Amino acid sequence: MIIGPENRQCPGCGSKRVRLSHRRRLDLLLSLFLVRPFRCRDCYLRFRGLYIRLVL
Question: What is the pLDDT tens value at each position of the chain, 56 positions in all?
């Protein structure tokens, strides 16, 4: 199961063109709780969301 950028939608414009963003200091701490920063490729909004990657 993967909950990543390919299954994400921008809360600002609704676009599905979303990618993982670079992590900053606070994001490093939040990544311990599976929360990662994302960025919309259309409106450039930066937001955080759950990021789970399980490899079977």
Answer: 445 556 788 999 999 999 988 888 887 878 878 888 999 999 999 998 888 776 66
- If one counts the domains in the chain, the total is 1
Q: What's at 3, amino acid-wise? A: I
CB atoms within 10 A of CB 8: 21
Angle at 25 between CA 24 and CA 27, to 5 degrees: 65
| Residue showing tokens 């701490």 | 29
> Could you tell me the CA-to-CA distances from 32 to 15, 28, 29, 50 in Å, in that order?
27, 7, 6, 11
The encoded tokens of residue 8 equal: 């994400």
